[in-house]
């Protein structure tokens, strides 16, 4: 119940959720940087979380950001596999769409043994959304790094990446 004289609106609840999520992600981001990992990118409250396999360099991140902009998801939250904090990030962000970019990311997500997961990323067909939990879709994509230097890999990655347009606001 709200304090006397104050009413709770949907807008207040949404703002409270945003602040809580941003605070949790800020703490996790600091821990990642202290451990030598890159900081996550994007807005953790968008509902779209991409997990990119490591190693991640500037070319991969630039290509990913350009691709997200092209499909209408410029603020999607981007984080990394192999940080040891992935489970906490998923709990904090509560994604509606969780995307594994590369087999290393899919493996890390499956290794979480997330109790609500209905299907493993390793079992999913690349480029085809699936029910990950009752409230979240999953999507497995090929690795991005090889697509930067190989035309066939680039075309394949982009063709499968385009499914993200269906999740743009």
From TrEMBL:
Sequence ranges of Basic and acidic residues compositional bias: 12-23
Ranges annotated as biased composition (Polar residues): 1-10
Lineage: Bacteria, Bacillati, Actinomycetota, Rubrobacteria, Rubrobacterales
Region annotation (Disordered) ranges: 1-41
Protein name per its UniProtKB record: Uncharacterized protein
Origin species: uncultured Rubrobacteraceae bacterium
């Amino acid at each position: 119940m709200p304090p006397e004289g104050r009413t709770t609106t949907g807008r207040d609840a949404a703002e409270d959720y945003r602040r809580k999520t941003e605070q949790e992600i800020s703490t996790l981001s600091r821990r990642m940087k202290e451990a030598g990992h890159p900081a996550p990118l994007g807005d953790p409250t968008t509902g779209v979380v991409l997990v990119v396999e490591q190693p991640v360099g500037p070319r991969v991140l630039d290509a990913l950001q350009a691709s997200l902009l092209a499909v209408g998801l410029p603020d999607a939250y981007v984080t990394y596999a192999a940080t040891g904090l992935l489970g906490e990030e998923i709990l904090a962000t509560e994604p509606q769409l969780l995307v594994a970019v590369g087999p290393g990311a899919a493996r890390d997500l499956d290794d979480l043994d997330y109790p609500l997961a209905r299907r493993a990323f390793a079992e999913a067909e690349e480029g085809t959304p699936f029910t990950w939990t009752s409230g979240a879709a999953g999507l497995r994509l090929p690795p991005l790094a090889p697509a930067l230097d190989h035309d066939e890999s680039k075309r394949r990655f982009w063709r499968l990446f385009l499914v993200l347009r269906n999740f743009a606001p």
